[in-house]
Every structure is written in structure tokens, then in C-alpha cells.
Design goal:
This protein is α+β, with helices and mostly antiparallel strands. The chain has a domain at about 30-85. About 20% of the residues lie in helices and about 20% in strands. The chain has one helix at about 70-85, and strands at about 15, 20, 30-35, 40-45, 55, 60, 65. The strands form 3 sheets. A 3-stranded antiparallel β-sheet has the order 4-3-5, with no helix packed on it. The chain has a two-stranded antiparallel ribbon with strand order 1-2. It is globular, with a radius of gyration of 16 Å.
Length: about 90
Amino acid sequence: ANAPVIDFAMDIVEMEGRPFAKRGKRSGAKQVYEAAGGRRVTLPLAAPAPEDATPLLSRYVEHGTIVARPKMEDARERVLSRLSDLAGE
């Protein structure tokens, strides 16, 4: 009853390296980049990264196996650094 909850949604974008998606969705693996001023751009994974942009997506699970575990301290620091951004919204 008091178990931790993880809430996330996924769209299948690729199967065995081939682009695959429901109609109306853009298929293929993608990366999201954040540029100066907080502007975000989503591009196909094979596309070159925009100049002076930071990739935002990391791989945590591959073929059902956990390949990386984020540190709670890093997540906390990231959230706290973004709270001031929410004040203006």
C-alpha cells in the first residue's frame, strides 16, 4: 500500500533497430537537447547535435536490463536548480 510508485509513459519508436510507431507518431529513436535560454529541440538520434546544446535523455534500461541507476543526490540537485524556473510560470 505504501510502496514507491513510478509513473512514466512510453511510445514504442523502434523494434530491433527498425523505426516503428503508431500512425501519427514520429518513429525512430530520438534525443532531446537543451540549448541556451532553455530552448529544447527533439531530433532523430542519428542527427548531429545542435551546437552548444546539452543532451537530456539517458539510457537506463536495455533489453529489459537496468544499465544505469541515477543517483538521488543528482536528481535532487537538478530539481532544486529548476525550482526558480517554475516561479515565473
